[in-house]
Amino acid sequence: MLFPVRRPRRLRIDSRLRNMVKEFTVEPRQLIYPLFVSESIKKPDEIKSMPGQMHWPVSQIDKPVKDAMKKGVTAFLLFGIPSKKDPHGDSGCGENSVVCKAIKQIKKKCPEAYIITDVCLCEYTSHGHCGFIDKNGNVENDVSCAQLAKMALSHVKAGADMVAPSDMMDGRISAIREILDDNGFENIPIMSYSVKYASSFYGPFREAADSAPGKGDRKGYQMDFCNSRDAMIELESDFEEGADILMVKPGLPYLDILKTASENYPCPIATYHVSGEYSMIKAAAQKGWIDEKKIVLESLIAMRRAGADLIITYFAPQAAEWLKEAL
Ligand code: PBG
Q: How far is CA 107 from CA 110, 156, 161, 178, in A?
């Protein structure tokens, strides 16, 4: 006797039922929009390597914030480009730094915006590294942590809601937690760039932030992409030191690491859909080779599926707009 051929289950799921049983969605509230604020410009200036993204003058930084908030994006990640650089990145660490001025401007015009600041020295150091460098070109870890902590405190004093250290020095989460607690900012969370690979996907960002290292690379303090188990060490130390949110970066090429992070740590997990990922989509879309909207939404869902609670993406306002229609 022949058994009847069974049709696969998926064929009995029509479009209405498919919509009912979708496991993952992405919402504007889960997106964080990175913004570049420059001390030395008077008018917004498009970043050539990142079409559609701008350098903003301090006086107008509230504009993209307001526009994105109208679309449902509530959180922003600030990067500063100072007019002066020095070996220790001092211009990024005082109360008059470009980021502190930007925070005040946003808080004045748009007090409900949630402001996160990137804490790193590479935009402010003349050599472009994320920490201090000794005469042999090696990064000096501990003094760099102290300087990063000072930067974080200045941001919080200016009104930042959260700080996000991206430098990858050892012990910087403890150093930042301690200085914030000692100054009465026990309630300010830290989102740590915990698993940050030494990645060529940051190429367009380094042009945007004018932060490419003059000599050498970041392989001494960022992670080797040939490895995955190292990620556990970075996640564990940042979690133990008190990070509130752990981040994996870049995004799409590192979904395996994102999944590991989300399965092993009982805290919110973020991922950074970085500049190279943005620019590749933009370039192919401009050529008409891919459908930008579909590719972006599929990418965001992929990151959610791998366990991201939060996604930092240059597409945030545009994606929020697209998400008004059902996926
Ligand atoms: C600073 C920093 C970088 C990025 C975020 N913070 C660059 C780097 O580490 O070289 C990259 C973000 C992006 O590519 O969009 N250390």
A: 5, 12, 10, 25
